[in-house]
Design goal:
Number of domains: 1
Structural class: alpha/beta
Strand content: 15-25%
Largest sheet: 8 strands, mixed
Number of helices: 10
Order of helices and strands: HHEEEHEHHEHEHHEHEH
Helix content: 25-40%
Amino acid sequence: MSLDPQIAAVLQQFAGMPQPDYSQLDPQQYRQFCDNLMPPVPGERLFEVRNLKVAGAAGLLDARLYRPEDSAELPLLVYFHGGGFVIGNLDTHDNLCRSLARLCGAVVVSVAYRLAPEARFPAAPEDCYSATRDLVARALELGFDASRLALAGDSAGANLAIAVARLAQLRDGPRIAYQCLFYPVTDAACDSASYSEFAEGYFLTREQMRWFWSQYLQAPEQGAEPLASPLRADSLAGLPPTSVFSAGFDPLRDEGEAFARRLQEAGVQTRLQRCEGMIHGFISMAAFVTAAQAALESAAADLRQALN
């Protein structure tokens, strides 16, 4: 399978950009650079889009609520943005969340968890779990049906969705009906075959992912903990039904697909869809990549079926 032509054009636009020296990279400056890399594109109009505060593990967090129609009976989808636990924010994933709200027919709430290295593991998963519990508790106030709850995220955000599902399992709730994972981070080892095959030249690089992990973990040995590397958990039994979307030209491809197989072996209803010709981050390119839009619609169909 070859690169999708539209994806190849995207990569060509980035081909001339110099690669940073990760041994000298300042995380805050890199965050600012990356968050401004993609120019803003006007998002879909929805019935309501508003900013709010939610309870994190150590204080209030920013969040953004997306309501596709005038109803307080819609299900809830909590979204966690990607960015290697270091970059990304509510704005970088605004259009994606707007599209998910419309396509799923759900209220989507995107959570701005604390980022590394200012807040290292396990700050982010604890923030995401606390925020999810807070949203469920405020269902009447915010206007949605929290008994129909799903989680979603891309890359590091997908890792955090898995962490929330695991913490909900360990801490007696809330009940999660479904999780949708776009090219999830599942193992800190960074040593799969796809890491070697797509180490450079496909947007996300092996060196970049190793740097992200070095910023996120307090110590390398934390990478063995299931909350950080869910692929290393002894058992995945009892996690919610799951959709996993991998990209054919992504260093994270193999660990995401391995996680899907582990779920299936544990008896968890799981659908794995490899999006051939795609690269890491493709789901955020749905506005200008036809195959990405198709994958987004497929994911939304899974969520809609699970929540209705």
